[in-house]
């Protein structure tokens, strides 16, 4: 795939299809990671979500170790670890361990949202706060990854002195500003926050300060993509994700539903507006259609990388969509 105009990666929420189990979802993730590696995808990131019966990647570091063990080249990362849910020392040790086992292949993407509802966040954080101290926690984590100094009493073992790339994830301008000030790469959640995309990317690029790890701004943009054998087929594939988001805004999240031919009987007009506006950063169509959508997206955003989420109920069709997406990227 040497003719690719943009680097592609995979964002996997490890969805649990309706009728399946979390164990099957994790097995699907392994098969997809191996397939993505064979296709030339650069990274395979999994995300931290809790108390959601449709997502199997809550123990994100554990899932990453599983995926890294079953692959050999593709970078394995978190998209992301919700740092306020954890002690920085624990994350430094976990990712230091992963980097020690799979050197040069581990990415640490960090977010500040809870990744769940407030009751579950309280159970996870046990008085650690509401995430407003995220910059301080990030600073502590980065110091734990630095080379240990003489007399330093607290060290991450393994972790200290290891070069684990840190990315900040964001769906608004907060993390864009912070990653710019620190000279870190920035990943924007365009897959569910399209309204803030341009302001966040502009903020990041305008305020970027070069650092030891990064000399110029580097943006990875999250998108949803459903590439089918026809535009109608792709639109049908996307209905599983639309139903899942509809269930989420109704307060009834659950396993990933099978696709339907027509969404109209399933939602009210205001629900349709909410779902489609939130998922507006989605590429849907056959290869020709998505190729044009992708070219337009890259022209408008100037993204250096794309990380693609495709919540498709059927595993074989999910793999097929990722294959078609890679073929599209080679033609843009």
Automatic annotation (TrEMBL):
CDD domains: Flavin_utilizing_monoxygenases. Gene3D superfamilies: Luciferase-like domain. Pfam families: Bac_luciferase. InterPro entries: Bact_Lucif_Oxidored, CmoO-like, Luciferase-like_dom, Luciferase-like_sf. It comes from the Bacteria. Residues 18-304 form the Luciferase-like domain. To bacterial alkanal monooxygenase alpha and beta chains. This is Alkane 1-monooxygenase. It comes from Halopseudomonas salina.
